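To: structure subgroup
Subject: Chain for Friday's discussion

All,

I'm putting the inputs and outputs inline so they're searchable in the archive.
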Amino acid sequence: MPTLLFLAYALAAFLVTFFVALLYQTVIYCFALKYKRNDLADVAWGFGFVLLGFFWLLASIQATFAFKIALFCIAVWGLRLTFHIGNRFLSHKKEDRRYAAWRKEWKWVKTRSYFQVFVLQAFLMSIILLPLILHANFGKPVSIWLVLLGFLIWCTGFYFQVAGDYQLQQFLKKRSSKGKLMTEGLWGKTRHPNYFGEMTMWWGVFVILFAPVSVAHFVVTLVGPLTITLLLRFVSGVPMLENHWKEKYPDQFKQYAADTPMLFPKLFKK
């Protein structure tokens, strides 16, 4: 297929995905308005990927084995994340500190929240899902060895995210943990096991679906895992959390940052 024609089809598939994501996010925004909690967007994030994934399962002419495995991985990740963040959402009566701060800082807060939180999330979902979207439209059978390799990469990321979240939960339940920074378990191997896990999972999905039909296909597909990696590393994940730690635990964080890698785990740390 000529490159320009491929890019036109890819853009059309992306826009369809974005339209469905936007409908979903608009519904979530209406609930956020009702309950005055824009952090509902965090709860909706994971499930949005599941919804879009199954949309393309129904829309694709023939879902390959690799597509089904990738969709399974995305569904497990998305549902687990929604349940995890949903529990946190229900246990806190107040809006998350980030959204509460934006509510105070922003003018035209309702309009800006819709575009800067919910519409932006719909756009990012559609970008990150590009490997699945393009495979649904242009996919060909993938080597079983690549599927297996990608699944093992995904499992590694899933372990880091789930185990990291669980260890943090248990740490926060202890009275002795009050006023302390979590530096135990996986958090002693990497400062962000959950973010490292999420990045790794999306690279696993990329490998599972790796069957480029052209150079353009490969480049556009690569945008998906690169987006989530750059987003977590430089925008909404690591920087925001580390700035919070620097303010709340200045002395502990300085030592923690000196001893522990930011992302890639130091597996043999003493």
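Points worth raising on Friday:
Residues 143-208+237-270 form one domain.
The chain is about 75% helix and 0% strand.

D.
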